[in-house]
Design goal:
Elements lengths: L1 H8 L4 E12 L2 E3 L19 E5 L6 E4 L8 E10 L3 H17 L12 E4 L2 E4 L12 H4 L1 H5 L8
Antiparallel strand pairs: 1-2, 1-5, 3-4, 3-5, 6-7
């Protein structure tokens, strides 16, 4: 979910980057000890720190270190060290809960209908103005997401 939310916001909370050749062996990222970050520091990722893999064929996305279950490969790309604010982590957790409850195809929130009437009964549900024909996490959390949104191209 972090990858989707960061993509929606155009904000990965980038702390530092390192470019080079990376290996994923037995589902785990092997950190090269010789690569320096853009800040000129030796690459180090703390336990539980979030990072983004970019330039991989199979594993592009946001993960929490130490990540396991990745697809084995060797690739030339980038590793972004991320620094998510605590309240952003809580927001993503809330979005995940909303998705579990409302994101399924059988959910009333995902229905393309905004109102219905039959047999003397009628109802209308709210719209989140996304233009996607259904309520989405983007619309449901729009106000909270806007605090982190970055303008495209920056």
């Amino acid at each position: 979910m972090y990858s989707q939310v960061c993509r929606e916001l155009n904000n990965y909370f980038e702390y530092d980057k390192v470019f080079g050749r990376f290996e994923i062996i037995n589902g785990s990222l092997i950190l090269p000890q010789h690569l320096n970050t853009q800040k000129g520091e030796i690459l180090r990722i703390q336990d539980d720190q979030y990072f983004r893999i970019a330039g991989s064929v199979f594993n592009d996305g946001v993960y929490q270190f130490p990540a396991t279950g990745l697809h084995d490969e060797t690739f030339d790309g980038a590793l972004w060290l991320l620094a998510f604010p605590i309240d952003f982590v809580a927001l993503v957790s809330d979005i995940e809960e909303w998705q579990k409850k409302n994101g399924g195809v059988d959910s009333a929130a995902m229905s393309p209908f905004t109102s219905e009437s039959f047999g003397g009964y009628s109802y209308s549900k709210g719209s989140n103005d996304t233009g996607k024909g259904a309520n989405t996490w983007q619309g449901a959390f729009k106000a909270r997401l806007n605090a982190y949104r970055r303008i495209k191209g920056i």
